[in-house]
Design a protein that fits this description.
9 strands, alpha+beta, single chain, 3 helices
Length: 159
């Protein structure tokens, strides 16, 4: 069996990029965990790891600074398209995101882009509703002090 090919698809700006340098660390029917370096050099962070929660509709990423200190956890609301024949997984960014800082503070971002994508026809009504439900589900983990259950997928691997 060939290795899973991961793609990141964005609606704003429109792009679909093969994450050719990401390393799949673990894969089950429920999750895919990767480690990666930034595609484009950044001042604030240089590398990280991600857990794709295939049945939950979100991706949780741990962003590290150059010195390996934790910058924050970045949570994307996504829609997955998996093609078993070509062994590809496309994670389409549904724009709503949550940043969880090391001190536990959480910040919801990019809801304006979610609205813009719907207004301009980039998202269907079904996708918008799914994105809002997935965001609510993710926030319920955070607000009920259960975010560590999601983090554990990555933390248990020492990443």
């Amino acid at each position: 069996m060939s290795e899973l090919q991961l793609y990141r698809k964005r609606l704003i700006p429109a792009e679909c990029i093969l994450l050719k340098d990401d390393t799949v660390v673990k894969q089950t029917e429920d999750i895919v965990i990767t480690s990666w370096k930034t595609l484009n050099p950044k001042i604030s962070f240089s590398h990280g790891c991600s857990c794709y929660f295939l049945k939950e509709g979100f991706k949780i990423s741990k962003f590290y600074r150059q010195d390996n200190s934790l910058l924050y956890w970045y949570c994307d609301i996504v829609e997955y398209t998996h093609d078993e024949q070509t062994h590809t997984l496309i994670a389409t960014d549904l724009l709503a995101d949550v940043i969880v800082y090391p001190d536990g503070r959480a910040k919801v971002v990019d809801l304006n882009e979610l609205a813009q994508a719907f207004e301009t026809g980039l998202l269907t009504a079904a996708q918008l509703c799914n994105a809002l439900r997935q965001l609510d589900h993710l926030l319920s983990y955070i607000y009920r002090d259960k975010f560590d259950q999601l983090q554990a997928q990555i933390e248990s691997l020492g990443l």
